[in-house]
Structures are given as structure tokens and as C-alpha cells.
Amino acid sequence: MYTNFRHVLFIIDFKRKTTNFVPLFKILKFDMKKIILLSGCLIILLSGCYNKKSAPASDYIEEPHSFSKPNEAAITHLDLDINVDFDNEIIHGKASYLIKNNKASQIILDSKFLTIEKVQADGKDTAFSLGDFDEQLGSPLKIDINNDTKQITVFYKTTHKTEALQWLKPQQTTDKKHPFLFTQGQAILTRTWIPIQDSPQIRITYNAKVKVPSQLMAVMSAENPKTKTPDGQYTFKMAQPISPYLIALAVGDIEYKAISNRTGIYAEKSMVEKAHDEFSDMENMVASAEALYGTYAWEQFDVIVLPPSFPFGGMENPRLTFATPTVIAGDKSLTSLIAHELAHSWSGNLVTNATWDDFWLNEGFTVYFEMRIMEALYGKDRANMLARIGRQDLEEEIESFKETPDDTKLKLNLKGRNPDDGMNSIAYDKGYLFLRTLEETAGREKFDVFLKSYFQKHAFSTIHTEKFVAFLNENLLEKHDITFNTNEWIYNAGIPDNQAIISSDKFETVEKTIQQFVKTNTVDKTLTKDWTTQEWVHFVRNFPNDIKTEHMAMFDEAFNLTNSNNSYIAMVWYEQAINHDYHGNDVDAKIEDFLIKVGRRWYVSTIYKAFKRNDKTDVALAIYNKARSNYHAVTTNTVDGILGYKQE
Ligand code: BES
Ligand code: ZN
């Protein structure tokens, strides 16, 4: 299927080329011999291109986070047939692959913490072995094949160590009646629930048959059901080729409510209406994204709101973004997250980073695109505030990496490390700043033409940093005679001097207001009455370093920050309470409740880091002991590291 897709693109290319041949025929006299000769040449010419396009050899570059050797044999399509067993918290079934076989005698899949029961090649049992286990990567699953094997099937089951899956008890859901399961594949966790060539350079289509308890509904990053089936049997189809980290499954007592004919919400019953209201601009977001950078390629754009232990704000699983309920603030103030995940439908899902060292190509472009959607829909003030918040995050991240400046480069070298180490503000906000600086240098009009062609030319393929630089040089910089320090931005630590200046008038007012309140020891609520969430976040994050506890108390009394219903404002306030030893308004109990309920890694790790920084690791550990079992593995991995936690 993958090849087919590339062929389609090629044919389109070819069609354009044929128009160039037309004048040739006009010049030549109508002569049968010449026509035969010419068509012969054409066929040779074409088959040359054709072979180049379809041959796997050398298409895939080396990368450190997969054992697979796709240049020898690569998977192209997956047929998944699984049973989701909530009683034993295990997924059991088989994964069949069509393969592109370059005369190989072996195909290697990635696997981690899976029990492999049996493997077949073209329907017959074949020998397999699991190679040495690596803490990050798992084990290579080496399967014997013939040089003409076309299909392999792996019979397997997951184990309790599986990191992608989080099995939730009814108590951990919103409605508290039924259990819930969701997967998280990015970056290298798909191999913990499906044996697979788990490299972002792989692209596969998939079909799935999933059996779940009959009271529950299953949804995937694919064509989805809108209602429950009576027998808990669901079938799925993802007809466009996607990278394995984007295969996703969620199972729970969920319902669907449409926003438009191509957007809608899945959520637990008591959450559906709220989520629908909060995200009612989703169709407008898709429309304005399309107006910016071209047609939405995935037909449907739905969001599933997961229980609060979901470890991310959002995850851009194709056709079905997974989202945390913590962005449902009641006033649409945190919906830039949806713009972000939607933007990944171009930067990430359509044009995919080839390796996790190129992660900034996924996230930096997505933040840039997110800001443009937000600006188009809600205006410059909102976009400037969001960008300014990111700029402060970047400043703090660079400070946190002052001992390891290499970590502040856009192009990373994560060999031997967990790709998660690259999931920080550098990829997102330095990536954004680079693109924004480019935009301001080239002018928006030229930059938009360039970006649109970047998405078009690389649709359904992968991109690495060097390939991007070559494309940038050819299609923007050289084309318009622009001098730009691209290499300094990408390959050096820190931020180059020519950075775009990101400013927000609204935030300057907030900063003045803080100074005034502190100086006069009073608050004037008329100054804050129209503030948006972003202004409040900026307010809380920019207290003077030596703010007195009395001023913390004054702010809490005036604005009840401890009890804010907005998860973002609450989170930054809790961080400040810890930083400044503030214990009023029962804030300690609130922090504990928050950490037990919410598993969003960015939120909880910010708070645990604050405890640690302020020599309160013991307080953090006491809470963590109660909270840990509610967290997904990606969150516990990070927090274990922050607190030096070791499991007994
Ligand atoms: N794709 C990321 C989440 C991710 C990155 C998961 C790396 C695993 C490894 C997603 O698009 C994302 O960036 N989420 C952010 C939201 C945001 C910046 C608005 C998050 O979860 O905080
Ligand atoms: Zn993202």
C-alpha cells in the first residue's frame, strides 16, 4: 500500500511532465517508427524512475532507536487481530504484515516486554529469536524468511510491564463505572503493545479487528465507529500510510458527538457535552489550517477526551487526537492545544521526522503552525501571548541545560538515550523561534508559499534535518537571495543574535500591574477584571524572585488562585507556592489532590521539580507514593528520575 501511495504521487508528477512532451510530437513528423522509438525511450525512462521510487534499498537512513533493517525487509501493511482482556490486563492476538522483501533471509521487528508465541512466514511456522534486551529499545525479534516471503504473522501477548498501555480501574475514570484503556505510542512505545518495525521512517497502512467487553467502545487512529456494537467487536481501517508511533487505541464507556460533518468528540458520558462546547471551534480550526497550508489529508478530525491520567496535553494520533481533560477550562482558553494537535496533521503525520534526533521538525513546525491558526481565528494579541509564554519556557529550559549545552541544539544526538529526553522546550520553542525568525526575514508571503510547498512535496514521507536544510536553501533562501544563519540555528547551542523579538503589549501591562500591587501592598481588581487565562498565567509566573509570603497571601485572598478551576493557572500557582514557601488557603492539600488526580507529565513534573529545587523532596516523595500508581509509564519514568525514586 505504501508503494502504491508513492506511485500515485509519482503518477501525478509524471502527468505534469507529459505536458512537456507534447511540443516534441508537434515538431516531429507523424512517423510510426519514431513513435515506437520514442515510446520505448519513455518506457525505459519511466521504469528507471519507477524503480527508484519503489526500491526500498537506501531509502531508509540509519537511526539509533529501532533494531529493524528496513533496507533489507520492510513492513508495508499491518492486519491486527486482538482481544482486549480487562480482567487480566493483557492484549492477546496476532499481527500480520505484508512486507517489501529485498531478497532478505531475515526480517527484524522491534519488541519490548511482549511474549511471542509463534511466528509464521507466508502461512507456515518459521523460526524466530529474541535478541539481547536493551533497557530503552527492548529486544529485536528476528524472524527467518525466504527471499520471496511476502507476509509474516506474529502471535503474541502483552505483559504487565508493557509501557504503552494504561489500564484504568473504574475509579480512575470520570464516570467511575467501567474500566478504560488507552495506548501511547510516541516515541518508541508501540513496540510494547505490537511487535513492529518501530521507526518513524516506516509507513504502513493498517486494518484492525479488536474485541472488547460488550459495554465498551473501541476507537483507533483510523476510521472509527460512532456507536457501540452489541458484541464488542470492532473493525478499523487506516487507508493512508502512517508511522508506527501513530497507531493508537482507546477503549472505554465512551460516546460520540459531532461538531461538523468531519469533526467531533469522543468522551465519557458526563464529559461529552462539556468537551463539545469547549472544542466547538474545531471545524473552524480545520478550515483555517487548510486555508494556510493546504487540504487536510485525513478526512476526519476527531478528539477523544481521556481520563486525567493521560500523560500528555494531547497526542496527534491521525483522525483521532487524544487529549487530556485538563484543557477543558469552561471558557475555551486552553484550546490552542487542539490547534497544535491539528497542525500535526501536516507537520508530523504527513511530513514525519525521520529520526527522533530530528524531533524539532515535528514540534517546531507544529508550534509555528499552531500560532498561525490561533492568530487567524482569535487575533494577534492571543497569538503573541501564547508565543511569549513559549519564549519564557525556552529561556527557563536553556537555563536548566546550562551544564549540558548540547541539549539546546535543534538537531540532537540521542543515540543511547531515551528519545523522550528530546521532548522539551528546545524542539518546541527554539524550533518555533527559528521559523518565526525565518518568516520575519523572508516576509510572511514568501514564507507561506515555501511552507505550503514543503508540506506538499514531502506529503506521506519522512524528512531529516539535512534534507530540510537543502529544501530551504533551494526553495526559499537561494530563490529569493536571502542570507540566513540556518546552520547556527540548527547545529549550535543557545539562541542566535538575529532572533525575532516576541513581545506582547498585554503582558507588559501584566508586568506593570504586578509591580504596582507589590509596591502598594494592595490589589486593584479593576485592573485584572478582563484578564484572560494567558494573562493570569503570565501574572503568576512573573512574581519578583523575592516576593514575600504576605504578597502571596494577598494575591490568593484577592484572586483565590489556590482554588482556580483552570488547571494551567493552578499548576503555575502551585509551583510558586512551593518556591515561596506559601501554605495558606489549604494549598498543600490542593497540590496533593492535583498530583494524585492528574497524570499530565508536564504539569506534575513541574510541581515535583519545584519540590526538589526547594529541598522538599521528602514532601514530594510522600505524595508520589500515593500518586504513582495512577500515572502512565511515561510519567513515572520522568518523575522517578526527578525524585530519584526506586521501586522496592
Ligand atoms: N506529539 C506530542 C506529544 C509527545 C511528544 C508524546 C513526544 C511523546 C513524545 C504532542 O503533540 C504535544 O506536543 N503535546 C503537548 C501539547 C502542546 C505543546 C500544546 C503536550 O502534551 O503538552
Ligand atoms: Zn506536538
Structure in words:
- This protein is α+β, with helices and mostly antiparallel strands and 648 residues long.
- The protein has 5 domains: 5-47, no CATH class; 60-252, Immunoglobulin-like (Sandwich), CATH 2.60.40.1730; 254-345, Zincin-like (2-Layer Sandwich); 346-491, Neutral Protease, domain 2, CATH 1.10.390.10; 509-643, Alpha Horseshoe (Serine Threonine Protein Phosphatase 5, Tetratricopeptide repeat), CATH 1.25.40.
- The chain has helices at 2-27, 32-54, 269-278, 282-293, 336-343, 359-378, 380-400, 425-442, 444-457, 465-477, 486-491, 505-520, 533-541, 549-559, 567-579, 587-597, 601-613, 617-627, 633-643; strands at 73-85, 90-101, 106-111, 114-121, 124-125, 128-130, 139-144, 151-158, 165-168, 180-183, 204-211, 217-220, 233-242, 249-252, 254-258, 263-268, 301-305, 314-315, 320-323, 351-353, 461-463.
- It has a 7-stranded mixed β-sheet with strand order 5-4-8-2-1-11-13, covered by helices on one side.
- Residues 1-57 have low confidence and may be disordered.
Q: How many domain modules?
A: 5
CA distance, first residue to last residue: 47 Å
Rg calc: 26 Å
CATH topology of the largest domain: Immunoglobulin-like
Biggest sheet record: 7 strands, mixed
Number of strands: 21
The parts where pLDDT drops under 50 for at least 5 residues are: 1-57
Content of β-strand: 15-25%
Assigned CATH class of the largest domain = Mainly Beta
Which structural class best describes the helix and strand composition?
A: alpha+beta
